[in-house]
Amino acid sequence: MKNIVVLVSGGGTNLQALIDAEKSGIIKGGKITCVISSKEGAYALERAKNSGIPARVIPRKEYPDSVSYSKAVLAALNEEKADLVVLAGFMTILDECVTKEYAYKIINVHPALIPSFCGEGYYGLKVHEAALAYGVKVSGATIHFVNEKADAGAIILQGTVSVEKGDTPEVLQKRIMENVEWKLLPKAVSLFCQDKIEIADGKAYVRE
Ligand code: GAR
């Protein structure tokens, strides 16, 4: 069984999707053993508590910079003996001290079709605002490994939705979460835990 540590910052609907998937047997070969929040009071912490999952808070605002914060996160991941780290709405970019030690062991969900609308500054509703401002007709979400560049690691899975006339960022976000994020994130986690993701030439391939 692989130890899955989930990093969160907010509402935690993706964490909930992972918890539900684990309960219903969709995640094979892994167990969520710890939730780490970058914010005190994040609703994701309630979700962990309600499911009896141990949680830690490492508040981003208590650290002067990304490196010192990342070192604290790294120490916690090592203590928790994490085999897989999932960034589920985690709104902080981790320094390479973490991404190097956990290379191809950190998975992120990004709410757009990478390489569009991604990188520094693109997070949460801002991503959907940008997609609507551009006028794209499809959007979606990307599940990818995390490396030292924001949203630039190997892509594992992507899924799409249509963008409809009159969509607001909130409406588009909900459509992408319901149809893509909450399904593909647990799927990718399960694939990882069953050693079904291969890396070749820096790209990820799924062995079904
Ligand atoms: C999700 O849409 C996730 O893809 C996005 O924030 C939301 C978090 O929701 N993540 C990013 O933008 C990361 N760059 P949640 O807390 O309810 O899972």
Note down, in words, how this protein is organized:
By secondary structure, this protein is of the alpha/beta class. The protein has one domain (about 1-205): Rossmann fold, CATH 3.40.50. It is built from six helices and nine strands; from the N terminus they run E-H-E-H-E-H-E-H-E-H-E-E-H-E-E. It has a seven-stranded mixed β-sheet, with helices on one face. Strands 8-9 form a two-stranded antiparallel sheet.
Give me the secondary-structure topology.
Layout: E1 2-8, H1 13-23, E2 30-37, H2 43-50, E3 55-57, H3 66-79, E4 84-87, H4 96-101, E5 106-110, H5 125-134, E6 138-145, E7 155-162, H6 169-193, E8 197-200, E9 203-206
Parallel strand pairs: 1-2, 1-4, 2-3, 4-5
Antiparallel strand pairs: 5-6, 6-7, 8-9
Helix pairs in contact: 1-6, 5-6
Bound molecules: glycinamide ribonucleotide.
What's this, in brief?
The chain is α/β, with parallel strands linked by helices and 208 residues long. The protein contains six helices and nine strands; from the N terminus they run βαβαβαβαβαββαββ. It is globular and about 50 Å long.
The multimeric state of the shown protein is single chain
Which range does the strand content fall in?
15-25%
Number of helices: 6
- Whole-number mean pLDDT: 98
SSE order:
EHEHEHEHEHEEHEE
Based on secondary structure, the structural category is alpha/beta
What share of the residues lie within helices? 25-40%
Q: Remind me, CATH topology?
A: Rossmann fold
CATH architecture: 3-Layer(aba) Sandwich
Rg value: 16 Å
Number of strands: 9
Going by CATH, what is the homologous superfamily? Formyl transferase, N-terminal domain
